[in-house]
Design brief:
Blueprint lengths: L12 H12 L5 E4 L1 H9 L4 H4 L3 E4 L2 H11 L7 H15 L2 E5 L3 H14 L4 E6 L4 H15 L3
Helix pairs in contact: 1-5
């Protein structure tokens, strides 16, 4: 997949991603990239999920500066802010979301928070990012199996 970065200087990044999702008529894989994720993308042969990302959003000053050097001026958006906007918009449109990445105890807290703050959110998969290759396979399977209903 070619790297496609979102210019976060635009007014509403989440609305643009939701629009892309609806028009693509398939799921889209959005990743907020910081220095640690960039390292994994370049150096970890098991980072198959990172190789399948449709849209990258810079989540860190260092990544924003590097991307800016190669692609022109780019903004930065905090991953947490983007996630909140996407979760809210997905609930409003009745779209499903999947979460992958944090440690399991953080993921559990995030799920509880989402279910409380965004009643009616449709979470089709949630796997911590420390579950190895088996976790990646399980995540992909859950997303695929739950996409149709």
């Amino acid at each position: 997949t070619a790297l496609s970065f979102v210019d976060t200087r635009s007014a509403d990044v989440s609305a643009g991603l939701i629009y892309e999702y609806i028009n693509a008529n398939r799921s889209i894989h959005v990743c907020t990239i910081n220095a640690e994720i960039a390292w994994s993308y370049l150096n970890d042969p098991c980072s198959t999920l990172l190789k399948e990302v449709d849209c990258w959003v810079s989540d860190g000053v260092g990544v924003s500066l590097k991307v800016g050097l190669f692609l022109g001026a780019m903004g930065k958006i905090a991953g947490l802010d983007l996630a909140e906007n996407l979760i809210s918009a997905s609930r409003d449109y009745g779209l499903k979301i999947a979460l992958f990445g944090p440690k399991s105890y953080i993921l559990e807290r995030a799920l509880s928070y989402i279910q409380t703050k965004y009643l009616g959110s449709r979470i089709c998969a949630a796997i911590d990012g420390y579950s190895g290759f088996e976790g990646i396979l399980k995540f992909k399977s859950l997303c695929k199996d739950n996409a149709a209903d």
